[in-house]
Amino acid sequence: MSDQFVLETRGLVKEFKGFVAVDDVNLKVQRGHIHALIGPNGAGKTTVFNLLTKFLPPTRGTILFNGKDITSLKSAAIARRGVVRSFQISAVFPHMTALENIRVALQSFEGNSFQFWKSGHSLNKLNERCMELLDSVGLTEFANTTTVELAYGRKRALELATTLAMEPELLLLDEPTQGMGGEDVERVVELVRKAAEGRTVLMVEHNLGVVSKLCDRITVLAQGSVLTEGEYKEVSEDPRVREVYMGSANTTQEAVE
Amino acid sequence: MDHPVNQTDIQQAMLDQQKSDQRRKHILNLVLLALLLIAPAVIYPVFLMKILCFALFAVAFNLLLGFTGLLSFGHAAFLATGSYTTGYLLSNYSGLTTEMGIIVGTAAATVLGVLFALVAIRRQGIYFAMITLALAQLVYFMFVQAPFTGGEDGMHGVPRGHLFGFIDLENNLAMYYFVLAVFLGGYLLVQRVVGSPFGQVLKAIKQNEPRAVSLGYNVNQYKVLAFVMSAGLAGLAGSVKTVVFQLASLNDAHWHMSGEVILMTLLGGTGTLLGPVVGATFVVNLEYQLSQGPLGDWVDPILGAIFVLTVIAFRSGIVGEIQKFVRKNMG
Amino acid sequence: DISDDTVKIGYLADMSGTYRDLAGPNGLKALEMAIADFGGKVNGAKIEVVSADDRNNPDSSSSTVRRWLENENVDLVAGMVASSVTIAVTKLLEENDGLGIVSGSAASSITNEHCTPNHIHYVYDTYPLANGTAKAVVQEGGKEWFILTADYAFGHALEGDVTRVVEENGGKVIKTARHPFPTSDFSSYILQAQSSGADVVALANAGSDTTNAITTAGEFGLTQSGQTLAALLLFLTDVHALGVNSAQGIQLTTGWYWNMNEEARKWADRFMDETGVRPTMVHAGIYSSTMQYLNAVKATGSDDTQTVRKQMMDTPINDMFATNGRIREDGRMVHDMYLAEVKTPEESENEWDLYKIVRTIPGDEAYRPLSESKCSLVSKN
Amino acid sequence: MSMILGVPVAVLFGQLLLGIINGAFYALLSLGLAVIFGLLKIINFAHGAMYMLGAMVTVIMFDAMGINYWVALVLAPLVVGCFGVLLEYFLLRRIAGQDHIYSLLLTFGVALMIQGILTNIFGVSGLRYSMPEIFQGGFKLDFMFLPYYRAWVIFMALLVCFGTWFMIEKTKLGSYLRAGTEDAQLMQGFGINVPLLISLTYGFGVMIAAFAGVLAAPIYSVTPVMGSNLLIVVFAVVVIGGMGSIAGAIITGLLMGVIEGFTKVFYPEFSSAVIFLVMVVVLLIRPSGLFGKEA
Amino acid sequence: MSQGSDKEYEQLRVSGLHAFYGESHILHGIDMVVHRGELVTLLGRNGAGRSTTLKAIMNMVGRRTGSIMINGNETMTCQPHHIARLGVGYCPEHRGIFSALNVQENLTLPPVVRSGGMSLEEIYSMFPNLYERRFSQGTKLSGGEQQMLAMARILRTGANMLLLDEITEGLAPVIVEKLGEVLVKLKNKGLTIVLVEQNFHFAAPLADRHYVMEHGQIVEEISADELEAKQSVLDSYLGV
Ligand SMILES: Nc1ncnc2c1ncn2[C@@H]1O[C@H](COP(=O)(O)OP(=O)(O)OP(=O)(O)O)[C@@H](O)[C@H]1O
Ligand SMILES: Nc1ncnc2c1ncn2[C@@H]1O[C@H](COP(=O)(O)OP(=O)(O)OP(=O)(O)O)[C@@H](O)[C@H]1O
Ligand SMILES: [Mg+2]
Ligand SMILES: [Mg+2]
């Protein structure tokens, strides 16, 4: 079973001072899938991400990654195991160039990060790969631009590239297309698709067009617990999902195009 | 969207930039080195040594503030620990060569740095500053109470001794070149560290800590290492200072000293390598000039006014502003 | 002969910190008055003054003094207040064979374990402070003592000296409390003193610590409940700050008081014209010691340290500052000290009319006898 | 008489009371500091100087114009408050939004200037200020003599503390203040005159410090440096209470007064450092202070 | 306040607006007019300068030149709080929820600048999530909840011109739908709305007119009825 599922949660619960944000969630993410987590605002999606990456400690429950219990690991250790997230609110290193942003991510695999005696030139060999990643999100020309100066949408693209640089086994994306216009969304979809080759993606996304195009499996979260799970078609036809989340089919259909 | 610029061009441009930066840095370093080598011919060596000691202290401090984003308000503790340890050893064990005294003093400060770091590192921002201050106050209390420090009177008459057992440091020039060597060692170390892969991670942590965590960095380990290095170098500054002045006093441990190094660093320019050096030179010199002259009793108000002016008009510090100016007028 | 035809005096004191008022900028005035009175020249050589703020920092002070000695041919270093500064400077003087006259410091160790052949301690030290005040108070019947001590070298020294004097005179120290330096709230200590049942509450501290403690003692009615308050080190400026209302009746020992005799008063008037305030014993001491120094240079025609020091030791001092003064081989200037009592508001005629002299303590009785000295310069026979 | 560790219980009662009184000063000072830090994110290193100014102005007004204590109690804080507003308007405003550390440097510079200038005018020995007649004497309690003035201090301090807490935590104005510190520009975009609000807040914060200074004038020696050593202790109090927590600053102030008071009995040498020990321990256990909101 | 559909009244006139962040010149001469009761969108790619335009109207950018008339008043020299008092409600791109305040305090924070705003009850019934979490700290809300809060709080103030920056971002489709209804309602009440939107499908049916921006300039103005005819032009600008 551990072969089939990369990630599994058992009875995951998170309470905030009496308020239950995540309520007994049993999630199974199949290897190689792009798995979407959707649900109304405040359903607990981001909180689930926070629990998975230990930005918040779970109140109860266990998290299994490749069959191993990672509930007690720290954030950084989880990232090193291959579970990497992007943030809902853009997270970059503002006073580094786009290229340096990505290089910091690549560097964490080099095993030289404690080498305070080495010259910075030793990092130049990573530049090639940085440029590839930047190119994949269309930021080539901004490689030497300081990140603060990038528009919001580009910051998000950069963040995605940085996350990909981590070569994660399981990629957690929190609303990757948020704040992006049509063409950029397209590109991100492509990017995620490309990135998903050979790895597993768990994403939160409100753009149903993206979800329907990309995702193999969808879990709907509402008020902290799992409402239903299945393929896009099943889920989108579920009246409960329509009621709490999707609303009238109209908007959705248009978005899908 | 099309990409008007070619990937390799961009990379090349970046490498060129790096190279020319490097070259400029080398030239600057050489000019400064030359100045420092001939300085004692013109300027009173003990005074120069004082500047170098404080410059080293500020450089050490800036490794934390400028390059890791941690504001320590307790760095006096390390300066004083280096200072007292070396002072005690050299006064009481006459067989000890000077450099051994300094090494042990530095080591003591480093160990103290580890202790501080372990306690403080989990705290952030102003809490970090305050917990380091609190720890430093406790260290201060210890130094006040401990019999070997001479309390308020201080520790006096520390012999300068012989470097490696044969170079007589009573000679001011010999002493000067030794201090210069130590200073350069510290400075170059920090320069290296900042540019190293480790330095990149520090920079990342400074700018966005949660993001660094999510990229798999155990940020506390990096911070601890940076902190300990900074503490060790501050201790080194203290040790050398004791040898130069042949005394150690509570002033080194007082929170004013922790404040002073912040001021030096900010005045010179945080996050620049040369900034703390310039800042230390400026402050030490200014205090000296003012305390000598007819404005003797106006030192504090004048210093105060300079701080105010700096913050209002030259926020990036002396070196920072110069860099800005150069960048603006050359590119 | 006089090196480079100038006699150069470096004045080093706290110009801006805690000890500013007792020496500070006005001390420099006193020094300059002395030079002016001497005529600005000695044996044709001109007299120059340099000054520096010690910032109560031995590092800064020693680099300043080093430069004075090594580069600027300063012949005499005067002033010197904080003991850490004084000890650092005297070590340097010894190394460079310069001469120093310490006027501000209180620590008796300066001419005891820290004595050097290169300095003179001129105005007062902790030994006579304890000796004068404590002895008088014990003899008046204050047998049981509570000592409130500033927790640093000076306080400890004073506490030690007081304890000895009290015990020698048949009294007893029943409790001591050491407070951090500086402290602003003394109510806790005053309460402890009150509940200790001691006859005498002695303050072995200085400056604002002392004035704060005295104010608080007044507020809590310490003296009303029958206890005696003894302040061991009070400068005129402290008493002036307290005012006679709070300070009345306090006994203290001083090396000099501006209104103690005609000569002193005349000089103090001139000083007041210059500065607007009455001089402390330190100010007077600076004037007097500078005069003595210049006289010695004149007499010997030299500014060589040992020659001048010897001449100074050989000349008894009788001037506006001291009667029966002489400099001993350990560098201590021994002169008569005075037990004074702060006047009552009724007695006090103006804001500076603060003391009445109760008793003169002969120098030999006041200061630590050479037989007890730990100074290496004192020949032991 | 029963004893605890060799100290009579009655004496300990007295110490407890004195500790609270002393704590009332800490509470007032840390309150002002917490208001300024919590709301403006300014590390006000001039706070000690403002406290000192409160006391100095009281004395100077009395000496020069014969203005009595009661008037000074209102007037001196107002004068200092206005000074604070000017300071904010001409200096601090220019560094709004910059790193904390700049405000630290700036206010430290200002403190040095104020202290240095006053030292040159008035010296460091202190100025005289006599207790108003009405406070002469005190209550004879079983365990101690409590001067009337100390009782007055604690009463006034608590009154001001409570009033301030109420205003900030419970009123609309308070919520403007709390929000304005996070995103002043947006607040202004909502139609609130944020620059004015900030000036007034800073003025108010230093006014509380000056008020403490007036309270201190009759009992402590009034000198230009009287505030400089208090400063870091008060900072410690604010941190222990939890930066930005108004209630935290008040309660911790009182608590630290008491702890320090007992230390003065059992280990007096340590009394100046005990607060820092408490701080280390508290921050190890509760990272954001006793009453701080968790980050 | 002259009522409703006074479509001739110029609520906002921007002419020759340039804006700068420090050294960088972001807006290059924007001209636009919005009439009372109109809903106008600003469309464009990421980085085109739409948010900057709204901020410039609020005087929240580094430096600006040109002219901005609101309600007939020239506002180039006004401080932001004066601009708000002219009846402008601004909902920023990054929400600007205050962490020091709880949800309800956040909601009641902006002072009422005109009569006719929504009451707290109306708002809570429109956004039940907010009611449920009204005593939690503002920033502890989920991303979407924060967005609702940011929108809701300016509805209370009675502002008659709303500048809304990407309000549907990160919201569940049901809520987006609901927001659409709210905007229609507001429009019917006679409010003037400038909407910066990525989600064209959301904006299209609501808007009277669209301005298309590129590189800090307005490159096209399209009214609702021309939309179909100009669809291809629009697509090319937006890269859909
Ligand atoms: N630190 C916290 N303290 C208290 N409550 C919290 C905290 N973090 C989140 N919550 C609450 O938990 C619930 C779930 O939040 P979460 O951010 O996981 O929602 P979400 O599903 O990601 O929503 P969205 O799509 O709007 O981002 C929300 O109601 C939120 O208010
Ligand atoms: N604070 C700033 N400093 C410097 N440049 C900035 C700043 N904010 C934005 N910019 C620049 O201004 C330009 C326009 O940004 P703006 O935020 O207005 O774009 P937008 O059209 O709203 O795009 P988005 O969809 O990304 O929000 C961008 O190129 C951006 O890099
Ligand atoms: Mg979310
Ligand atoms: Mg935008």
Automatic annotation (TrEMBL), chain A:
<dbReference type="GO" id="GO:0005524">
    <property type="term" value="F:ATP binding"/>
</dbReference>
<dbReference type="Pfam" id="PF00005">
    <property type="entry name" value="ABC_tran"/>
</dbReference>
<keyword id="KW-0547">Nucleotide-binding</keyword>
<dbReference type="GO" id="GO:0016887">
    <property type="term" value="F:ATP hydrolysis activity"/>
</dbReference>
<keyword id="KW-0067">ATP-binding</keyword>
<dbReference type="InterPro" id="IPR003593">
    <property type="entry name" value="AAA+_ATPase"/>
</dbReference>
<dbReference type="GO" id="GO:0005886">
    <property type="term" value="C:plasma membrane"/>
</dbReference>
<dbReference type="InterPro" id="IPR027417">
    <property type="entry name" value="P-loop_NTPase"/>
</dbReference>
<dbReference type="InterPro" id="IPR003439">
    <property type="entry name" value="ABC_transporter-like_ATP-bd"/>
</dbReference>
<keyword id="KW-0813">Transport</keyword>
<dbReference type="InterPro" id="IPR051120">
    <property type="entry name" value="ABC_AA/LPS_Transport"/>
</dbReference>
<feature type="domain" description="ABC transporter">
    <location>
        <begin position="7"/>
        <end position="248"/>
    </location>
</feature>
Automatic annotation (TrEMBL), chain B:
<dbReference type="Pfam" id="PF02653">
    <property type="entry name" value="BPD_transp_2"/>
</dbReference>
<feature type="transmembrane region" description="Helical">
    <location>
        <begin position="126"/>
        <end position="148"/>
    </location>
</feature>
<keyword id="KW-0812">Transmembrane</keyword>
<dbReference type="InterPro" id="IPR001851">
    <property type="entry name" value="ABC_transp_permease"/>
</dbReference>
<protein>
    <submittedName>
        <fullName>Branched-chain amino acid ABC transporter permease</fullName>
    </submittedName>
</protein>
<feature type="transmembrane region" description="Helical">
    <location>
        <begin position="54"/>
        <end position="80"/>
    </location>
</feature>
<dbReference type="GO" id="GO:0005886">
    <property type="term" value="C:plasma membrane"/>
</dbReference>
<feature type="transmembrane region" description="Helical">
    <location>
        <begin position="261"/>
        <end position="282"/>
    </location>
</feature>
<keyword id="KW-1003">Cell membrane</keyword>
<dbReference type="GO" id="GO:0015658">
    <property type="term" value="F:branched-chain amino acid transmembrane transporter activity"/>
</dbReference>
<feature type="transmembrane region" description="Helical">
    <location>
        <begin position="302"/>
        <end position="322"/>
    </location>
</feature>
<feature type="transmembrane region" description="Helical">
    <location>
        <begin position="27"/>
        <end position="47"/>
    </location>
</feature>
UniProtKB/TrEMBL annotation, chain D:
<feature type="transmembrane region" description="Helical">
    <location>
        <begin position="149"/>
        <end position="168"/>
    </location>
</feature>
<keyword id="KW-0029">Amino-acid transport</keyword>
<feature type="transmembrane region" description="Helical">
    <location>
        <begin position="12"/>
        <end position="35"/>
    </location>
</feature>
<protein>
    <submittedName>
        <fullName>Transmembrane ABC transporter protein</fullName>
    </submittedName>
</protein>
<keyword id="KW-1133">Transmembrane helix</keyword>
<feature type="transmembrane region" description="Helical">
    <location>
        <begin position="196"/>
        <end position="220"/>
    </location>
</feature>
<feature type="transmembrane region" description="Helical">
    <location>
        <begin position="68"/>
        <end position="92"/>
    </location>
</feature>
<dbReference type="InterPro" id="IPR052157">
    <property type="entry name" value="BCAA_transport_permease"/>
</dbReference>
<keyword id="KW-0812">Transmembrane</keyword>
<keyword id="KW-0813">Transport</keyword>
<feature type="transmembrane region" description="Helical">
    <location>
        <begin position="265"/>
        <end position="285"/>
    </location>
</feature>
<feature type="transmembrane region" description="Helical">
    <location>
        <begin position="232"/>
        <end position="258"/>
    </location>
</feature>
TrEMBL record, chain E:
<comment type="similarity">
    <text>Belongs to the ABC transporter superfamily.</text>
</comment>
<keyword id="KW-0547">Nucleotide-binding</keyword>
<feature type="domain" description="ABC transporter">
    <location>
        <begin position="12"/>
        <end position="240"/>
    </location>
</feature>
<protein>
    <submittedName>
        <fullName>Leucine/isoleucine/valine ABC transporter ATP-binding protein</fullName>
    </submittedName>
</protein>
<keyword id="KW-0029">Amino-acid transport</keyword>
<dbReference type="GO" id="GO:0015807">
    <property type="term" value="P:L-amino acid transport"/>
</dbReference>
<dbReference type="GO" id="GO:0015658">
    <property type="term" value="F:branched-chain amino acid transmembrane transporter activity"/>
</dbReference>
<keyword id="KW-0067">ATP-binding</keyword>
<dbReference type="Pfam" id="PF00005">
    <property type="entry name" value="ABC_tran"/>
</dbReference>
<dbReference type="InterPro" id="IPR027417">
    <property type="entry name" value="P-loop_NTPase"/>
</dbReference>
<dbReference type="InterPro" id="IPR052156">
    <property type="entry name" value="BCAA_Transport_ATP-bd_LivF"/>
</dbReference>
<dbReference type="InterPro" id="IPR003439">
    <property type="entry name" value="ABC_transporter-like_ATP-bd"/>
</dbReference>
